[in-house]
Each structure stands twice: as structure tokens, then as C-alpha cells.
Amino acid sequence: MLGNKGLRIGQLAVRLGTTAKTLRFYEKVGLLGPAERGPSGYRRYSEGAVGRARLVLGLRRLGLSIKEAQGLLQKNRDRLTLRQRLLALMHEKLRETELELSVLQGRHEDLAIRHEALLSVPRGRPGDCICDALLASCSCQSAPLPEPETLTLPLE
Prior knowledge:
Layout: E1 7-8, H1 9-16, H2 20-28, E2 36-37, E3 43-45, H3 47-61, H4 66-73, H5 82-119
Antiparallel strand pairs: 1-3, 2-3
Helix pairs in contact: 1-2
């Protein structure tokens, strides 16, 4: 129960496990409607406003961006329920995540191959030889890299 005056912003933030700053930001970007104001000017939140804030925070905790949450909570022009719209959005996000995972898996496999190649460099190769990690034919033995100390610049 909220009582007849509603919750102040700090009380609501504690109840929902967030900050007053976050709630003010969500109000600013339109995810929460403007709060009622008490005689002292403090924001007051009714049961309905508390429910809306809980919904917005839940959507954000699902990983939805501000823009995605705004789109989801806009007036329903397509006559789909909130659940149907959220399911469609989550399906899209799952596909995007699967693609990102595939890309990361490919990068991981490539890095593992290069790492193993570098670990398996034959003895006798110069210490600066990284050809195997670059998956390149080694030319280091026929033309060793000069040591940094032996490089000389012409004096003019």
C-alpha cells in the first residue's frame, strides 16, 4: 500500500532496486510519465506509476535499449499484445546474439590455431620469428631480422 500520498522518488528507487537519478532519466526520455507533485514539489508516485516503473526497469534488465523499450511501450498501432511484441523483439535479439556468438567462436578458433602454431615453432628459429602465428611461410632463417641495437642511421 502506498497510502494516500504515494511514494516519493527515493522510496520508489529503494523499492525497485534502482536510483532516483535513473527514475528521473526515464521520466525525461518518456519511459515514465511525469510524476505527480506534492505541495512541496516532490515527485509522488501512485500505484499505476509504480507498476509502470517496475515494467520499465524489468525491460531494461532484459537488456533492451532505451529506444527498444520506448518502441515496445508506444501506443499499440498493430493491435498486438505487449507479450507478442516482446516475444518478437526477443526473437530478433536472440538471432543477433547467436550471430555474435558465431563470430566470436570463429575468432576464438582462429586465435587458438595461431597460438598453437606459435607454441610449436621449431627449435633453431630466431626468437623474433612469429611467422607461424601469422600463418605465413617463414623466411626468418634466410634473412634474420636485425637487432634493434645494430640499426644505424646515416649521419648527414
